[in-house]
Amino acid sequence: MTLQVCGVAAVAEIRYQPCYCEENVWFLCQDERVNPASAQVVIVTNWLRGVRMWSQRATFPRPVVWDYHVFVWSSPYVWDLDTLLGFPVPDELYFRRSFWSPALPGDAVGTVHTTGAVQNGDSPLDGADFAPEFRLVAASDYVRKFGSDRSHMMDDAGRFLSPPPPWPPLSAGTVPLMDWLDLGNLSLGRWIGLSELLDVVKLQRTAGFDVEAVGSK
Fold it and tell me: Which SS3 state, helix, strand or coil, does residue 100 take?
C-alpha cells in the first residue's frame, strides 16, 4: 500500500487490511518511521461499543461509528492508516477533528468490526453516548503482548465478516483483542476520556510524559 508520509509518497510497503486495524498497528509499531521506542498504541472504544469518528476512509464524508479503533501515537504525530487527515497527522489536529464535529447524530454511518455490518446512521443516541475512551499502551508492550486469532471477525459458521489479511494471524503474544477492549480490565492500562487525552497532548508539548505513568494512575 502506498501512502502519503509528510506529503511525500512512501515507497516502502505498509501492511494494511481494512477492518483489521489492531493487526495493521502491530506491524506499524515496528516501522522505524514512527519511532517505536517512544510510540504508543491508542485503543479506542466505549461501553456501548460505538465511537463516532470523522474523516475515516470507510464512510467519508459522513462520520463512522466504530465499535473500536486502534492507531499509533508518536508525538507530535498520529499514524492512523484509516484516516484521511494525513499520514502522519499532527496529534492535536487529529484528536480534535476525528472525535468532535458539529454534525448531528443522525449523520453517522455505523460500521462495526465484530459484525461486519454497516448500520443506518439515524440514531436516537446523543453525542455523549458516542464519547470515546482511550487506552494508551507502549508500542513495545503491544507488540510483545498482542495476539489475534481473528475469531471476532467470524460468524457462527466460521465465515469471515470482512476479508482477512494475507499474512498469518499474529500469535507472538497471548493477550487477545477483546481483553484490550475490556473497559473493566485495568491490568493493561487505565482508560481516559478525550478531554484528559488532550491535556496529555499539551503536557507532552512542554515537558513530555511517561505512558507507563498515565496507564497506572
Answer: coil
